[in-house]
Known about the structure:
With about 290 residues, the protein is an alpha/beta fold. It has helices at about 10-25, 30-35, 60-70, 95-125, 145-155, 175-180, 180-190, 205-215, 225-240, 255-260, 270-275, and strands spanning about 40-50, 55, 75, 85, 90-95, 135, 170, 200-205, 220-225, 245-250, 265-270, 280-285. The protein is about 40% helix and about 20% strand.
Amino acid sequence: MSNSGVLPPWLVLDPLLRGWLVEDIGRGDHTTNTLLVENVTLGSAKWIAKASGIITGLPVAARVFQILNEKVSFVTVVPEGAWCESGQVVAEIHGSLDALLMGERVALNLAMRLSGIATLTNIYVEKIADLPAQLVDTRKTTPGLRLLEKYATALGGAINHRMGLDDAVMIKDNHIAAAMGIGEAVTRIRSQIPYPLTIEVETESLEQVKEALKHKADIIMLDNMPLDMMRQAVQLIRQQDSRVKIEASGNVTLETIRSVAETDVDYISSSAPITQSKWLDLSMRIIH
């Protein structure tokens, strides 16, 4: 299990969290505002895991409550990134009841989503833990949640691929088609990109691999290749240019990831830990 995930600063996350609170609260929480109309009432709550998995997103959940009331105390019982069991108390919260009640849904939704991603990511990572290949995530993320979803994959043990289109150059099949070939695409892009951006080229055949090598790609992606072709491609790249990193991608599953890793690629990219993960069920209980 990894603890390498680093949250972006609150300067970046706060506008997102405020927006999600506004989406939920709207013009006012009729239930809470009516129930607690007269005085600020203090109370406590517990978060309880209803399934086992890697708990993720607790600092974000705490921040949600503290945006509503900065005096809310959010104490983690299970450390961020640690395994929790069903029925275990994950966190204890104390503060203004209106903040606890109004922040409950947003905070829980985020933690459940991120915990599910970290849990499934770790299952994938464990499949290849004894091999050199490393799992990386993709840009197939939920709009608005990319920073947090990629934080969750990192906490689950994967490596973050580029955060966005401005992180690195990845020349995919449609770029190749638009440029009328790998060589033309690499040549045009290399002459204009700033240092030290790398260039990755997506390939689907051995001929494309040779073309990417000829034009000095930094990373070559082997996309949806049969295993036999993938092994040939890896051998070709290793023999011709040992500095080039090799990434495998396309229809990676829990059943196939180990076979892919055994071809000696450096990285395996998959969207599955994010797109196919199930939320880890958590609940909040007011205790007084």
